Each structure stands twice: as structure tokens, then as C-alpha cells.
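Appendix B. Raw example, untouched.
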Amino acid sequence: MMRSHFLRPLPLALAALLACSPGAFADDERDHDRGGDHHGARPPSHGHGKPIDWAGTAYRKGVVAVANPYGAEAGARMLERGGNAVDAAVAIAYALNVVEPQSAGIGGGGFMMVHLAKSGRTFAIDTREKAPAAATPDMFVGVTRPDLNGVAVGVPGMVRGTALALRRWGHLPLHKVIEPAIDLADTGFAATPRYTAVSCNNGGRSTNSPEAAAFFCPGGVPAPVGQVVQNKPLAETLRLIARHGPDCFYKFMPEKGCDIAQGIVEGQKFNRPQVAGGKGGSMTLADLEAYQPALREPTVGTYRGYTIKAMSPPSSGGLTMLQILKMLERFPIGDAAAGYGFGSLKTANVMAEAMRIAFADRSQWMGDADFVPVPGKGLLDATYLGARGAVIVPGTRITPNPVAGDPRPYDVAGTKPATRLAVAEPVTGPGETTTHFSVVDKWGNMVTYTNTIESSHGIGVFAGYTRPDGSFRNHGFLLNNELTDFNTTPSVNPYTGGPGFNDVQPAKRPRSSMTPAMIFTPDGRPLVAYGSPGGSTIINSVLNVTLNLIDHKMTLQDAIKAPRISVTSAGSAISLEAGIPQATIDGLLALGYTVATTEIGSVQAVVLDPKTGLQFGAADARREGTVIGLPR
């Protein structure tokens, strides 16, 4: 345990590591082409200026950057025991289920992007939740607050996906990697400020069911900071998974004591009886048993000579961020003399307009590519983006709001553009939390992993069931409300006339905003692994840090600390963080934007310097970001 270590403030400094030694993964997969997308316009000359500055403390034996100190300790411990970046990432994910239960855990899913040093391969493990077989496009219609009802629960993917990662690319067995999480759940952890702050204050999610209210907000009061929090039911659940493997989570096997699946199925039947219009979910034991993670190739593009790889569909993160970057590439961002310095009106203006255009495309064309023909090539085509971005004029705001374009002619040869139908824009539910962490190990393998149960505390219901004697069998983890990332009412694609690309379908994964990403040198060497939580603002948090590093030449920690700008729709509502100059805010208001100040994201990043082999890390003080570099 790490009790006393985490009761005092932890430094949020950069960390770093690694000599350029060969990777230690047993990569049994064939290598894939690492070529980038070279469709972009010629970058301005300033784009080839001084290289990215990492600064901070440098390491050579591994670095973890996590939004929580206990999670960081779990990952560092795996690296010290001879584990690699995948082992550390899985240990972190399980530990965060205990100490950040409101954000992520085994009741949800996410995307783990991995770069293998030995082969040079970069890929993602997709553990995104799926809709049950009985799901329908109209299943949310008429439901009061579907995000607080069992109808929103998707089939969780984290357990199968992390087991796959360990089996194929890890060094350590599952039961060893889960040990820190079991220890934290069984013997307890000191409640952190963020844990206390959100336990009773999140729109009723933590108190949505009696069991959740009793755990998170007993008597209407959260655990005070520093009080030891235990979760014995979760410790027992994790021991079952450690002993019997992922099948113990996905299959009902009472002869082995594996009743977790029964608790998931019963728990998602919750219909929020305190409010009329509740609705339970349709998930069955067969849905759970059928779940499998997927291996994905990342979405790849370039920006000012750097190659960027980010999560591909069913996430919209990579496509949307790369669209924004390519539309911005013609502007001399970072050139203060030209008016494009950090936080300037011109910079904020063109960023906002590129976001508005890209989010208009996102709303119609992005979804689960296993079910719908996402035109990924067309969305990143230079000619298409040139036309889309041509309407961005500094000192103006696009009016009326941008609408989705038709990228299909740029995606498939011979396709003709269609006339756009006048249909309503699709609507999705809330997505306010999530967690992110990044890891590099001593061999140079890197992981960037965004994990979630969607909104804070999911539906506010623990997996569990009522025993014959009337007692409640609590499995100690929260169920997600991920299916509200689908369109919550049936929609129409304005160009095809068919169902919306993100409408509900059985076994389909809902569209995500999660954007685990990596930056590479032009010759393909990995530089940065990073990502963020924050619902649809995730895309823009990662974008802001990318611009700060490449254009504004900030150090890694400064790039994360700097105030952010975010627009998450085609509308003109801009979210800003404190620290953006008042003159810029006044200028945006004068252009017709509405402006709100709020906190945006929480980026955690690690760096591998290709010239020196040194490793660095940076964590975000917007949450409880913690970097641990090795040797300590």
C-alpha cells in the first residue's frame, strides 16, 4: 500500500525516460505500414522552426502520467516488477476503478493505443461498449433522463480488452497486474480531494440508487478528504477475475462462484422508480458472453511535418482532430508578429471556426465503421478540407452555422455529391467524465489509454442482484450509461436519406469522442503519447495541447497547463478557461460568439526523446495529475 506517500501533495512536474534499446514485447502480429497522410497543404515556414521542447526531469526506466496518484503508483509498481507499458496500463485501469469509480472501471470501456518499439507497429485495442441485441433506434424515446436508467447501459468491454492486451503483449499475468487494485479496494485508500468533491455533487448520479447513495454519500455527506475508503465487494469481484480470468466476468458460472454477469444483467434493469418514465435495459447473459474487443488501426495524418496517430472509429476523436488541424495548417499559428500568438483573437477565432466545421461533419458522418460506411479518407482529403476550410476568414464568424459537407466523392472514386436534405441535427446525451493516462517503459513501448463509464458515476447503480433471502449481492462497480452517446432519437443522414450513422443498432458501438493520440517525427519515431477526459471536449483538449507543442513551442508541462479553447458543435458557443486575455474574449463577443468560462479536460502525457532516449512526463493539475518516473 501507498498510504503515507499519497497523503501529502505530489509534484506535477514533467517526468521522462528511456534509452533507445529494443522493445521487449512479444509482438506476434505482423508489422503494418507506418506511412502518414500527406494530403495537407504546404506548411508555413515557421512550422519548421525549433523542435518541441520537453524540459523537466528526465528518466530512462519508465514513466507513468495519470490523473490520480494511486493509479500512478500502481503503474509504476508494475514497471518496477519487470512489466512493460501494457502491464502498467492495465494495472492503472484497474486501480482507477477503485479510486476514480465515478470516471471509469470494469463496468465500462475505452480505447488503449499501443506503440511497440521493436516492430514500430502502432494499433489500438477497442473495448468500447456495445448495444444489446434487443436495442432499437427509438429505445430512448419517452424515457425521462435515459442517462440515469438501465436502458443506457452498454455491454462493458474493459475486462476482455485488458485481458487480451496482457495475453498478447504483456509480460505479467492478469492476477499480478490486478494486485494493486485489490489491495486498494480491500484495505482502502485515503479519499482524495476530487473523490470527495464529486461524491455528492454530480446531478444526482451518485445517489441514483440506494446502494450508490449509501456508499458515495452516506447521510448526504461524502467521505472527508483523508478518510480511508474501502470497497470490499469490489475487492471480491476483482479476486474472482484474477482467479478465473475474464470469463468469470462475462459468463454466469455459479459452480466457480462467478456470478458477476448476473449482477450486470440485473443491475441494468434499473428503471429509476423515483421518477415516472423510467426504463430498464435489455442486456442478457448472451450479450455479455458474446462481447469481444476489436483491434483497430489508428487514424493517421500530418501537421507541420509531424505525423499524428489518433483513435479511429467508433471514436470520432482522430478524424475530428485531424480535420481541425488540417484546416488550421494554412494559418501561421504561433507567429505573434502576425497576430497569431497564443491566446490572441486571431488564433482563437480560426480555432473556433475550424472546430465548428469539423463538429458539423462529425455529427453526421462519424460512427461505428463496423456498421456504417464512415468516409474517413474523404473527411481528411486535402481538396475536401481545402473547400471546407476556405470559409474560415480571420475577423469573421461563419453565418449561418456550418452544416456537414459531403465527403463521399473524395472517399470513393465515381461517387457523385448528393443534395442535402433539410433534416434535424441528431442529439446525443451527456458525457462529462472519463479518465486518461499515458505510459512509456524502459524499452520504449508506449501506451495512451482513455477509459470511461461515460457520465460521472454512470447510471449511479452498482452491478448486483437480490438474493433469495432478500439481501443485495453487490459487486462493487458502477454500470456505465454509454449508450446515450448514440443519437437519442432516430435521425436521418442529410445526404443519404437513410438512418443516422450514430443511430442505435444491435451490437453497435456508440460514437465516442475519446482521443488517445501519439505524435511521431516525420521519419516515424514516436515522440508523445497523450490524451484527455471530458466528453466531447476531449477532442479539443488534445488539439489545444498539440498546437501548444508544435506551433506555440511550449514545454510539455506548459502545453498542458495553458488555458484551453473549445467548441463542440456547429454553433457559436465557445468555452474558454480562465487565463485567456480579456481582449480576446471581448473580440470574440464582438464577432457574435457566446463565451463561457469553464474547466476543460485533463491531459496526461509521456514523451520519448528520439535523439537522447530520455523520457519525460507531464500531468494535469485540473485533476490530481501525477507523474512517476523511474528510477525514483
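End of appendix B.
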